[in-house]
Write a structure and sequence with these properties.
CATH architecture: Alpha-Beta Complex
Order of helices and strands: EHEHEHEEHEEEHEEEHHEH
CATH class: Alpha Beta
Structural class: alpha/beta
Shape: globular
Low-confidence stretches: 238-242
Number of domains: 1
Radius of gyration: 18 Å
Helix content: 25-40%
Oligomer: single chain
Number of helices: 8
Number of strands: 12
Distance between the termini: 37 Å
Strand content: 25-35%
């Protein structure tokens, strides 16, 4: 059995040639741990993404694995494929359109080390223009999703409608506090969580896989915390934000229906 690394960074890609370089360069610049492995899971990109990943592997100082899926496996399945190849004591799921701006990942790992009951930590997240992004949420309900969906549709036609209010606006000034879950653009997790509750639910192709996983972790005794001392930029390239309705929106709605049926008693 291979010796565990301190950290495994798992990144999913699918036609991300416009942003993946920035993500990978920030890893080389800001990850301070030599015993870090990078696992790049490509979901059948048709652009230049795979060549960029290969170039990174040839030049980086970190042990890097590239997994080339022959079809788009979705988020949960893709993460699980990467997780099965990982050896880290801590696992960071990082979106291809997110990137580091400092080495504050050290704070996250120390935070998890020093708090036995905390299994997941999420950072302060910024847009490219340095505006704070709402990446922390309450567990979704049918009512909350309908409300947010309606606001999102209205916002596409009237930019004055505010869609950036957070479930935790009233306590953000506390810097560190417990949350239900954070969006998966940057999610740092102890390996013990996976050992106890298993992999992501592959019935969810794209959508509430992060909420589902954090809920399962909470039931198993692992808390999720927001730590505002950790920083990351997320450019938010998701296709579902670009159209009123798209195939990714369909997958998201399908995942939500599954999530509500699965967790109706929780």
């Amino acid at each position: 059995m291979p010796k565990n690394n301190l950290l495994s960074i798992i990144i999913l890609t699918h036609n991300n040639e416009n942003c993946i370089n920035t993500c990978l360069k920030s890893i080389n610049k800001y990850i301070p741990f030599k015993d870090t492995e990078i696992i790049l899971v490509d979901n059948n990109s048709s652009d230049n993404t795979l060549n960029i990943l290969k170039q990174f592997k040839n030049k980086t100082k970190f042990n890097t694995k590239i997994i080339n899926n022959k079809k788009n496996m979705g988020v949960s399945n893709g993460r699980n494929i990467g997780l099965k190849k990982s050896n880290g004591n801590y696992i960071l799921f990082l979106d291809s359109d997110a990137y580091f701006i400092d080495d504050s990942i050290k704070i996250g790992i120390d935070f998890l080390k020093n708090n036995k009951d905390i299994g997941i930590v999420v950072p302060k997240m910024f847009y490219k223009n340095k505006e704070i992004q709402d990446n922390i949420r309450k567990f979704p309900t049918i009512k909350s999703k309908l409300k947010n969906g309606f606001k999102g549709i209205l916002h596409k036609f009237n930019k004055k409608i505010d869609i950036n209010s957070s479930d935790y606006d009233n306590i953000r000034d506390q810097v560190i506090f417990e949350v239900d879950y954070g969006i998966g653009a940057y999610t740092l997790i102890k390996r013990e969580v996976f050992i106890k509750i298993g992999f992501y639910d592959e019935h969810i192709f794209y959508g509430p896989e992060d909420a589902d996983y954090a809920l399962r972790a909470k039931i198993a005794g692992f808390k999720t915390y927001y730590n505002g001392l950790i920083s990351v930029v997320h450019e938010r390239q998701r296709l579902s934000h670009k159209k009123v309705f798209s195939m990714m929106t369909f997958y998201h709605i399908k995942g939500l229906i599954y999530y509500f049926i699965k967790n109706r008693k929780n």
